[in-house]
TrEMBL record:
It comes from Thermococcus siculi. Coiled coil: none annotated. It comes from the Archaea. This is Flavodoxin. InterPro entries: Flavodoxin/NO_synth, Flavodoxin_dom, Flavoprotein-like_sf, Protoporphyrinogen_IX_DH. Residues 4-148 form the Flavodoxin-like domain.
């Protein structure tokens, strides 16, 4: 299985910690969306898309990359994030919709709290100081192991 993780982590490197744990389990390459030509994604069996949540959505760089992709017909993707307020369905809804519109099968989602010092929160030391912590990263590891099993044990879709 060839896996790729495309991520953005601009605030405190919170999402990068999660991305690195997942990459280790999945033996995945890690890349920023602006370093990748859209067609390069098409050689991977599983692609993770993750970032911090900035103004209630993933980073624009991920949206731009997905928008520039050709239709992918059942290629497998997963979504992950870290956020000040970890409201996964709400925070992931836009990227999930965009991936599905392109023809991705979204096979898993992961999120956890991330240290947030945006705006006035800085004055009180931020929200979720210390997150992602060891427990969050252990959950990320378990999530990635589950994904690996799921993808390896189910027949490959007719990718294009
Ligand atoms: C400009 C900005 C906007 C943010 N907007 C939100 C938001 O809408 N909802 C939320 O839960 N957290 C928000 N956060 C907090 C981040 O999602 C959180 O700190 C995240 O873990 C950052 O990940 P990173 O360190 O990988 O960039 C925002 C942070 C910044 C800097």
């Amino acid at each position: 299985m060839k896996a790729l993780i495309v991520y953005v982590s601009i605030h405190h490197g919170n999402t990068e910690k999660v991305a690195r744990v997942m990459a280790e389990v999945l033996n995945a390459e890690l890349v920023k969306p602006w370093k990748l030509k859209p067609e390069e994604l098409l050689s991977y069996d599983l692609i993770g898309f993750g970032s911090g949540i900035y103004w209630w959505r993933h980073h624009w760089g991920l949206f731009k990359l997905v928008e520039n992709l050709p239709e992918v017909h059942g290629r497998r993707a997963f979504i992950f994030s870290t956020a000040g307020l970890n409201i996964r369905p709400y925070n992931h809804r836009r990227l999930k919709r965009k991936l599905r519109e392109k023809g991705f099968e979204v096979v898993g989602e992961f999120s956890c709290r991330g240290w947030d010092t945006n705006g006035w929160l800085a004055k009180i030391g931020g929200l979720n100081k210390g997150h992602p912590d060891e427990r969050d990263l252990e959950r990320a590891r378990k999530f990635a192991e589950g994904l690996k099993t799921k993808v390896l044990n189910s027949p490959a879709p007719n990718n294009s």
